[in-house]
Automatic annotation (TrEMBL):
<dbReference type="Pfam" id="PF00902">
    <property type="entry name" value="TatC"/>
</dbReference>
<keyword id="KW-0812">Transmembrane</keyword>
<comment type="similarity">
    <text>Belongs to the TatC family.</text>
</comment>
<dbReference type="InterPro" id="IPR002033">
    <property type="entry name" value="TatC"/>
</dbReference>
<comment type="subunit">
    <text>The Tat system comprises two distinct complexes: a TatABC complex, containing multiple copies of TatA, TatB and TatC subunits, and a separate TatA complex, containing only TatA subunits. Substrates initially bind to the TatABC complex, which probably triggers association of the separate TatA complex to form the active translocon.</text>
</comment>
<comment type="function">
    <text>Part of the twin-arginine translocation (Tat) system that transports large folded proteins containing a characteristic twin-arginine motif in their signal peptide across membranes. Together with TatB, TatC is part of a receptor directly interacting with Tat signal peptides.</text>
</comment>
<feature type="transmembrane region" description="Helical">
    <location>
        <begin position="14"/>
        <end position="32"/>
    </location>
</feature>
<keyword id="KW-0813">Transport</keyword>
<keyword id="KW-1003">Cell membrane</keyword>
<keyword id="KW-0811">Translocation</keyword>
<protein>
    <recommendedName>
        <fullName>Sec-independent protein translocase protein TatC</fullName>
    </recommendedName>
</protein>
<keyword id="KW-0472">Membrane</keyword>
<feature type="transmembrane region" description="Helical">
    <location>
        <begin position="108"/>
        <end position="128"/>
    </location>
</feature>
<feature type="transmembrane region" description="Helical">
    <location>
        <begin position="214"/>
        <end position="235"/>
    </location>
</feature>
<feature type="transmembrane region" description="Helical">
    <location>
        <begin position="67"/>
        <end position="88"/>
    </location>
</feature>
<keyword id="KW-0653">Protein transport</keyword>
<keyword id="KW-1133">Transmembrane helix</keyword>
Length: 255
């Protein structure tokens, strides 16, 4: 396909993705209250857990703050809700240029990547109340904790994104094994360093400073890395079995 046709195809897919996003965004404007309750639930749970030990309440700053809150919340929700469609458009644009073997690997990646990302996001959402509780508990007794919603929403978004992307990293390891870049034996040799690096990464990557959030990210990632190593060793065995008959055929031909 000529380069101009590729650009026209890309423009068409981007336009369709934008129209779907716009339609979902307009719809989400009518569901603002449920979305706000969903976003505020971790904070409300943390406030309940703190009880009377710390006085805390959320607020919106500035004259345009409520409007920006409205648009930002609906925009992020629409982007997430439309993700299956725009991810499919990216997939449909890339696939025609792949070989059959690469298509098979990319289908595997597409099938597993989504559930792993959602699992990471749900894990972050589950540990958020505890993380917020620890952070707000540092408020001195003589002061009241005022949580600005824009800052809180950015914190929540970063937390969900970090967990979601981090849970994808072991999948990339499996893809590298399928591509022949790393082997299960190599992963076994560096396993202690992978575990140590996972805990260091979790400590640095989590926006929250509490150990609960760090462990909630590090422990599942460690098990996912161990699972990736098992899959990589299985791939190595399958690759070795396929290589033996080919080697035998080469010897027969030489004779």
């Amino acid at each position: 396909m000529p380069v101009g046709d590729h650009f026209r195809e890309l423009r068409g897919r981007l336009l369709r993705s934008f129209l779907v996003f716009a339609a979902i965004f307009i719809t989400s404007l009518f569901f603002y209250d449920p979305l706000l309750n969903l976003v505020m639930e971790p904070y409300n749970d943390a406030r309940i857990a703190l009880g009377e030990s710390v006085e805390t309440r959320p607020y919106v700053s500035g004259a345009t703050g409520p409007l920006m809150l409205y648009l930002k919340l609906c925009g992020v929700a629409s982007l997430v809700a439309a993700s299956p469609y725009w991810l499919y458009q990216i997939w449909a644009f890339i696939v025609p240029g792949l070989h059959s073997k690469e298509k098979k690997w990319s289908r595997l990646f597409a099938a597993v990547a989504g559930p792993l990302f959602i699992f990471g996001v749900l894990t972050a959402y589950y540990v958020l109340p505890k993380g917020l509780e620890v952070l707000i508990s540092f408020t001195p007794d003589s002061m009241e904790s005022l949580v600005e919603f824009g800052e809180y929403f950015s914190f929540l978004s970063r937390m969900l994104l970090v967990f979601g992307i981090s849970f994808e990293i072991p999948l990339f390891v499996v893809m590298l094994s399928l591509a022949g870049v790393v082997s299960g034996k190599q992963l076994g040799k560096i396993r202690p360093w992978l575990v140590l690096g996972t805990f260091i990464f979790a400590a640095v990557a989590t926006p929250s400073t509490d150990p609960m959030s760090m462990l909630s990210l590090a422990i599942p990632m460690t098990f996912l890395f161990l699972g990736a190593e098992i899959v990589a060793r299985f791939i190595d065995k399958v690759r070795a079995k396929k290589a033996i008959p080919e080697y035998a055929d080469d010897e027969v031909s030489a004779i």
